[in-house]
Amino acid sequence: PIFVASKKGIPTVIQEQNSYPGITNKLLSKKAQKICVAYDHLERFFPAEKMIKTGNPVRQDLLSVYKKTEEAKDFFEVDKNKKIILVLGGSLGARRVNELIESQLEFFKSQNVQLIWQCGQLYFDEYKKYNELKNVQVHQFLNRMDLAYAASDIIISRAGASTVSELCIVGKPTIFIPSPNVAEDHQTKNAKSIVDKHGAILIKESELETFPIVFETLIKDKGKQQNLSENIHELALPNATSDIVNEIEKLIKSSYY
User: Fold this and answer.
1) Which residue, 209, 195, 110, 208, is CA-closest to 159?
2) Which of 31, 91, 99, 156 is deepest in the core (most CB within 10 A)?
């Protein structure tokens, strides 16, 4: 959580990134003056009069990804005539996502798409061998996330709070595969908040056998891709950083005047 302490050590501003709050913020919210949130319908956890929907801070270079498509495709040296699928599993990686992608390599080949596959630090040694395949790139990290997003046509991703906020700004068709191994299953709740507004597709880890059907349906339906892209982009809150700072400044000024 982000918080600013008053002279008496009472938290003044906290920020909740997820659609399901953690224990720390639930406790701090009782004395906080303002609670910056990224999702709707958190009144069951926090006092409504204290909440302000700001969104989550994101890297500012994502605000112009649509201007970087050609640069991005040159950077990754991809075939500009084929769809690009970006796979994100987080910095450490996601075993079930990686296992899924590995099992579907022949399927992706049959779909005539290219993969930019960020497998994570823990799994790179295991999966780097697939760099030998045509139209497959395996990366431990992606140092230019703005270009990775810009190059992609469809994104397959976990559903951590920061990632979801970034994907709303990027506005690309997204398939969420949330981790079930997190507190309160908050990644599923994060993803569902987007899916319920027709902004993404959700596949639970327990339902990964449906992936080929879901993916093939999406890749063939340009209208569906466009709708998902427009709907997720409508949920973006690109000014989150400045809005949070403004709330902090307001309370600092009010404590001195």
Assistant:
1) 195
2) 156
What are 74's two structure tokens? 């040159």
Separation between Cα atoms, residue 144 and residue 164, nearest integer Å: 17
Q: What percent of the chain has pLDDT over 90?
A: 75
Tell how strand 11-16 and strand 3-5 pair up: antiparallel
SS (H, E, C) 86-99: EEECCCCCCHHHHH
Q: What are the residues whose beta carbons fall under 8 Å from the beta carbon of 99, sequence distance 6 or more? A: none
- DSSP secondary structure string for all residues of 19-88: SS--HHHHHHTTT-SEEEESSS--TTTS-GGGEEE------GGGGGGGG-HHHHHHHHT--TTSEEEEEE
